[in-house]
Design brief:
The protein is an alpha+beta fold and 395 residues long. The protein contains 16 helices and 14 strands. The structure holds protoporphyrin IX containing FE (HEM).
Length: 395
């Protein structure tokens, strides 16, 4: 068994899709509670049971000082960087906008977006599925779900990416100043207009029996603006890539569409688009056979946990025969993703749509980047082509 000191140079910001799984396998097998000296020092949990336990235990593993590592300036996101009972109040503002009924109501809209994007992609003979589908779909969804304008959402990917390079040296508040300006402009537009949508409803929201303050509203809207698109883009890219690399899998899903939701869960587990988030210990904690002192930053690696072979046999394989239930791609416990039902719906509709078209394949090798902000991992480009349909086939 290695000691926590064997991984002192581990830096989750430099993970790539190519190196991340072997890195985590080594940590999980030899030192499941490791310590890195990077970014001011932090611990890394990589076993399924340990990550789940820490995600559940909000008393010992707090989010209130921020869930990013490093986290200059402390916790600022609502509801991510809060603990119960405050968290419960804030989270309500999100769950109201994303109830299962609301997601069901959105289905025709989502299907329309998927059809439009994928039909255009097919008509042009394929292209970069990240730029043409995976980036655009979650942004369009944000216009409907919250009420942001198309001009606002069009600016989000570049501004979010830029903020990730800044958070190593400045607070999230400073790094996201431009996103804040966009959100302020949206609040102004909604206050002065007669638009009725989720954002206009949030203007009159209550928190703990009192009207929401302006700064709280800005932070709620910033979370809607940032939490929902990069994660979903990376998940959509992962699903398309998995399909493109495996024609037999495409045929199977076409023949047995009831397998599609399970396929989506497996892709989420295997790719883990939100790879990890942090906590701070509020007391001395025993976990995974080690003692972590009070006041330490701890990274909960959802990605490593999702590849723990003691929980998922042959973890690197998308296996339609297993139930991926209990995977941690959306986190676990009180902070488990509020947008999960919406993201799942987008993913399922996309796979259904692709299965109604000729087979896709890789037109060139996709490019993958490093973890954005130490959290998000996905493909930067995904060149896709459609198989020519020969006469006499039904596709
Ligand atoms: C496949 C896509 C997505 C993935 C992989 C993902 C992943 C996650 C994860 C791992 C967490 C847990 C954070 C923690 O434990 O600290 C989380 C929380 C959250 N997600 Fe997602 N997410 C996705 C889509 C979305 C969407 C579409 C939205 C909104 C429209 C959204 C909004 C949020 C919010 C607001 C939280 C904070 C919840 C809380 O602190 O209670 N996410 N997400």
């Amino acid at each position: 068994m290695a000691s926590p000191g064997d991984f002192t140079d581990f830096d989750h910001h430099s993970n790539t899709y190519e190196n991340v799984w072997s890195r985590y396998e080594k940590m999980r097998d030899t030192c499941p509670v490791a310590h890195s000296d990077q970014h001011g020092g932090f611990w890394v949990l990589t076993r399924y049971d340990d990550v789940k336990k820490a995600a559940r235990d909000t008393e010992a593993f707090s989010s209130a000082q921020g869930v990013r590592v490093p986290n200059i300036g402390g916790g600022q996101s609502i509801p991510l960087d809060t603990d119960p009972p405050v968290h419960t109040e804030y989270r309500r503002l999100f769950t109201q906008a994303l109830t299962p009924d609301r997601v069901r109501e959105l289905r025709p809209f989502l299907r329309g977006c998927v059809d439009e994007l994928v039909d255009a992609f097919f008509a042009q003979g394929g292209g970069d599925a990240i730029a043409d589908i995976a980036v655009l779909l979650p942004l369009r969804v944000l216009t409907e779900v919250i009420g942001f304008s198309e001009q606002t959402v069009a600016q989000l990917p570049a501004l979010t990416t830029a903020s990730w390079t800044k958070i190593a040296t400045m607070s999230l508040h400073e790094a996201r100043a431009e996103i804040r300006n966009l959100v302020e402009a949206e609040i102004e537009r909604h206050r002065s207009g007669d638009v009725v949508d989720e954002l206009s409803r949030l203007l009159d929201a209550e928190v703990d029996g009192r009207p929401i303050e302006h700064d709280e509203l800005v932070r709620v809207l910033q979370s809607f603006a940032t939490a929902g698109h990069e994660t979903t883009t990376n998940a959509l890219g992962g699903v398309i890539h998995t399909l493109a690399a495996d024609p037999a899998l495409q045929d199977l899903l076409r023949a047995e569409p009831e397998l599609i939701p399970g396929f989506v869960e497996e892709c989420l587990r295997v790719r883990s688009p939100a790879q990890q988030l942090g906590r701070v210990t509020t007391c001395e904690v025993e976990i995974g056979g080690r003692t972590i002192p009070e006041g330490e930053r701890v990274l909960l690696s959802f990605a490593a946990a999702n590849h723990d072979s003691s929980r998922f046999a042959e973890p690197d394989r998308v296996d339609l025969g297993r139930s991926a239930r209990g995977h941690l791609a959306f986190g676990w416990g009180v902070h488990q993703c509020v947008g999960a039902a919406l993201a799942r719906q987008e993913l399922v509709l996309l796979v259904e749509k692709l299965c109604a078209l000729p087979r896709i394949g890789l037109a060139a090798t996709p490019e993958s980047g490093t973890t954005q902000g130490g959290i998000h991992l996905g493909l930067r480009t995904l060149p896709i082509e459609f198989e020519p349909v020969s006469a006499g086939t039904d596709r």
